[in-house]
Amino acid sequence: MHYLNKILLGDCEEVLKGIPENSVDLIVTSPPYADQRQQTYGGICPTKYVAWFLPKVDQFYRVLKPTGTFVLNIKERVVSGERHTYVIELILEMRRRGWLWTEEFMWHKKNSYPGKWPNRFRDNWERLLQFNKQKKFQMHQEEVMVPVGTWAKHRLVNLSDTDKIRDESRVGSGFGKNVSNWVGRRKVYPNNVIHMATESSNQNHSAVFPVALPTWFIKLFTSPGDTVLDPFMGSGSTAIAALKLGRNYIGVDINKQYVDLANQRINNSQTRLPGVGERGKRYPVKGQKEGVHSETY
Amino acid sequence: MHYLNKILLGDCEEVLKGIPENSVDLIVTSPPYADQRQQTYGGICPTKYVAWFLPKVDQFYRVLKPTGTFVLNIKERVVSGERHTYVIELILEMRRRGWLWTEEFMWHKKNSYPGKWPNRFRDNWERLLQFNKQKKFQMHQEEVMVPVGTWAKHRLVNLSDTDKIRDESRVGSGFGKNVSNWVGRRKVYPNNVIHMATESSNQNHSAVFPVALPTWFIKLFTSPGDTVLDPFMGSGSTAIAALKLGRNYIGVDINKQYVDLANQRINNSQTRLPGVGERGKRYPVKGQKEGVHSETY
DNA sequence: GTTCCGCATGAATCGATAG
DNA sequence: ACTATCGATTCATGCGGAA
Lengths: 297, 297
Prior knowledge:
2 copies of one chain form a homodimer.
Chain A: E1 6-9, H1 12-15, E2 24-29, H2 38-41, H3 49-63, E3 64-74, E4 78-79, E5 82-83, H4 86-96, E6 100-109, E7 125-132, E8 146-147, H5 149-157, H6 161-171, E9 187-188, E10 193-196, H7 212-221, E11 227-230, H8 237-244, E12 248-253, H9 256-271
The structure holds a DNA duplex.
C-alpha cells in the first residue's frame, strides 16, 4: 500500500499504471478544462479534449472497484459564440467504453466570474457527472441528509456567512452557535442540485474546487477506510476532505508546484487542530461549511 | 396574419408548414419527454426520440427569424439505471443541421416531485437549451435584471417592516442601517441559473411549465409586438405569458383537450382583469410572481 | 458579543488591435 | 483570413478590522 495517502507527481495516465486494478472506491476530480489553466497545465485544445482525456479515463476504469463511483466535475467553454460539444461527446465515448452515465448533478456556483457580454449572462453552474461500472454501487444517502428547508432558512439567513464560519471554528465541535440547533432537527434527503461557492478569495491558494464538494461525495459514495482517488489533485481539496473523513487518498498531479502546495495544505489542515491526523475522527476545517447543500444556499 | 393569437390543432410538424418562413421571433416550448405523458401524447420511445424530433425542429428553423431564438426545455429520463443520451444526441444532430447551441440555462425546480430511490436522489433541475440561427440575435438583458444579491439576502430579510420604514424616514444623512442603499435598490444582470418553482396548481395538464418561465424568456428575447411560438402548447402557459407582455402568440397542440384547456386558461387570464384583452398593455396575472429569478439564494 | 463596511479576487467572454 | 494578445466589463464571497 505504498501508494496510499500520498500525492504522486506525474501524468495520471502513466502513474495510475502502477496502481492495482479494482482498488479504488471513489474517483472525484476536476480536470483542467479545455484551454483553461494554460500556465500550469498547458491548456488542451477543445477539439482534442476527448482524445486527450479518454486514455486517462481507461485507467480510471481499471483501478476503480466494480461498486465504485467516478465523479467528474467539468464544464464546456464558449467557443466562437457557442457552447462547445466536447463534454457531451466525452459522455458518449465513455459509454462506448463501458461506463454507465448514472446521473448528472448540478453544481450551482454561487459566486461565478463577473463580467458582461452582449449575448450571454454569467455562467453560474457546472456539471458533476456521475459514472459507474455497474448499476449497483456503494451509496449512503443518509450520510448527506440536510436539515429541512424552512427552519434552516430562518435561522441562518440573518447571520452573515462570515459570522457563521467564525463561530463554527471557534466552537470546534463542527457546530457553530445557532447551528447547534440542528441537532435533533428533522432532516431530509438532498437532491441533485448542489449549492456551493468556490473558494476563490482564499489568499494562498485559489482552489476553485471547494473542500465541501469532495466532502459531500466522499460521505455519499464511500465508507471509512475506503480509498479516494483524485488524478488531477491541484491544490489538494480532495485529499483534505478524505483525511478529515477517515478515508485513504491517492493524489496525482503533473505539476510539482501543485504537489508541494497540496502537501502543505494537507499538513496545515491536520496540525492546525488538536489530535492530529488520527484516522476515523472528524475535525472541523477552517472555512468548511456544514450544510452548504441545504436550502439556505 | 390569420394564424396569430390562436391555438392550432394538429401535429406541429404539419401545422407549421402553413406558417411563412422567418416570421417568428421566439420559440419556447417544453415538448413531451421520451416515454412521458403516454396517455396524452402517446409517448415516444427514447431510442426513437431524436428521429421523432428532428423533422419538427427543421420546421422551427424555417419559421424562425434569423435574429430569433429557440428555447427548448427538456430533460433526459432514466432508463435502466442510466441517464439516457437522447438529449445530448439531439444537440449534436441539431448542430449538424445548422443550429447554433448558444447556451444551456439551468432551471432549478425548487419544488420537485417527491420520492426516494436506492441509487439516486430527486431530480431538481432541467435543461433550458438555447439555440440560434446566427451569432447575433435579439436580446434585451436589462429587461430581466434582478436586485443585487446582498440586498435581498441580509438586509431585507432580518429587518421587520417597521424597522425599514423607521430607518428610511430617518435617513437624510444617508446612514440609517444603510437602508439608503435599498432605495432605488441596485439591480444586476442575472446569470444562467433560473430558480423557479413548478406550477403546483392542479391544472389538468401534467407538464408543469410555470408561466414565469416563458415570461422570462419572452422579456429577454423579444420586443412588444413580436411573435412567440410554442409548438407543444399544452395548457397554454406560453400564450398567457405572451399576451400579458403584449406579444403575439402562435400555439400548436396535437391534443384537442389541451387546446380547449389552453383557450380556457387564456380567456380566464384576460377576463379576470379589467380592461380586457387590449394588446400592448400589461396586466398582473394571478399567481404570477415577480422576481422569481432573483435571490432568495 | 454582534453587526457592518471595505477590499481583494476569481475554471470568463467579447471585440479590437496587431503580427 | 487566421491566430495571439489585451483591455473592459462585472459581482458574490471571505476576510479583517471597526462601530
